[in-house]
Design a protein that fits this description.
With 377 residues, the chain is of the alpha/beta class. Among the domains are: 101 residues, Rossmann fold (3-Layer(aba) Sandwich); 52 residues. 34% of the residues lie in helices and 23% in strands. It has 14 helices and 16 strands. The longest helix is centred in the N-terminal third of the chain and has 14 residues. It is globular and about 65 Å long.
């Protein structure tokens, strides 16, 4: 009997990578998604797509929908993709026997997703991360008085609520759970990894080449031995199993300063052999080698096209983006599975409509109904 895997989001290109990877191994792939129409729904590799309650609107209703689906379809594996992982983690202790959930407990996830808790954990391991504190703490006032600094919500995503402040500007005293973090000037780098019991199985380091707001839609894989070593040390010290991703700023001395952790899939998955990744997840003791893809420049074509058109009055930047469009490989296009690319404008209509009419970034529009709003567990 063919095993069934449930992917708990279908609207993002990174979900499509997972869909195709598991399908290539012969698994029956289902998708649970609050949006009725979404990118993965039209993929030939999806056996069936189910509309479920949006977790941000009704967290318990969302879990009930997933549990009913898991029972009805005899799901063997549950794979969260993005911000919904914090909600899906609530399935621990409630799943039928034999069902495997590819997510740590919510408490473990929040230790990483909470930007202040992560910062303190990384620094306790002796790893480089900018000095940070909670508003109201003496250290927060010191950080604000002695240099430029950043304030941001502890539980946000997609760059929402990030603010850079000049030295001497009063630090916030309270409100939404947030942090004050010393500003680091330098180049931003991001990572994506799959880890098993404290061992990194694969790690991709990349930089954003074209941005839509604060979210990268064009990507270049780079060699970064210091960042790779940082990730492997953190994973080993935390004994992590699962997806884990980081954002860094590489400072003037070439030292990677970790500014946040995303314990989920990020766009770096597009540089990983998806079939080998799925095999390593299903059979962690088989010693499957997960390699990075040879191409180092990738893009989400339609958002990159939009951002290129927006550079109409900057000839140099417009030319750079056109070169990127011509040379980068699209993350969605597949000759054997062309519909997700060909219908992407239609299947992304709900995200596009929200972004246009509500004036929010594409990243915020894509995650608003799935993000974690509960703070600490």
């Amino acid at each position: 009997m063919t095993d069934t895997v449930l992917i708990t989001l279908g609207r993002l290109p990174k979900a499509l990578d997972l869909v195709r990877g598991f399908a290539e191994l012969g698994l029956r792939v289902l998708v649970a998604e609050p949006f009725r129409w979404h990118l993965c729904r039209v993929s030939r590799d999806v056996a069936r797509s189910y509309a479920v309650t949006a977790p941000a609107a009704d967290p318990e209703g969302y879990l009930r929908d997933l549990l009913a689906l898991i029972e009805r379809e005899s799901v063997r594996y549950v794979v969260p993709v993005s911000e919904e992982i914090l909600h899906v983690a609530g399935l621990h202790g409630r799943l039928p026997p034999g069902v495997r959930l590819f997510a740590p407990t919510r408490a473990e996830l929040l230790r990483l997703h909470d930007k202040l808790a992560f910062n303190r954990l990384a620094r306790s391991f002796g790893l480089t991360a900018p000095q940070s504190a909670a508003p109201g703490e003496a250290l927060a006032a010191q950080i604000a008085a002695t240099g430029d600094y950043v304030t941001k919500p502890r539980f946000s995503c997609s760059g929402k609520g990030v603010r850079v402040c000049r030295a001497g500007a009063p630090a916030p005293a309270g409100g939404v759970p947030s942090l004050v973090q010393r500003f680091v000037a330098g180049d931003v780098r991001s990572t994506f990894a799959w880890a098993d019991r404290g061992r990194v199985i694969v790690n991709a380091v990349y930089r954003g080449t074209i941005l839509s707001g604060t979210v990268a839609v064009g990507f270049e894989r780079v060699d970064a031995p210091r960042i790779d070593a940082w990730v492997r040390e953190f994973v080993a010290r935390s004994a992590h199993t699962g997806f884990i991703s980081f954002d860094f700023v590489v400072d003037a001395a070439g030292e990677p300063q970790a500014i946040e952790c995303n314990p989920r899939v990020t766009s770096g998955v597009h540089f990983v052999d998806a079939t080998a990744l799925a095999a390593a997840m299903l059979r962690p003791d088989a010693g499957t080698q997960v390699r990075l893809r040879e191409d180092t420049l990738r893009q989400q074509f339609y958002p990159c096209l939009t951002e290129t058109q927006r550079a109409i009055f900057d000839a140099g930047e417009r030319a750079r983006r056109w070169r990127h469009l011509r040379t980068a490989r699209d993350v969605v296009w597949s000759r054997r599975d062309p519909l997700p690319f060909l219908t992407m404008t239609f299947t992304s209509a709900q995200i596009l409509r929200m972004s246009i009419f509500e004036g929010v970034s594409l990243g915020e529009a894509a995650t608003r109904d799935i993000e974690w709003q509960g703070g600490e567990a």
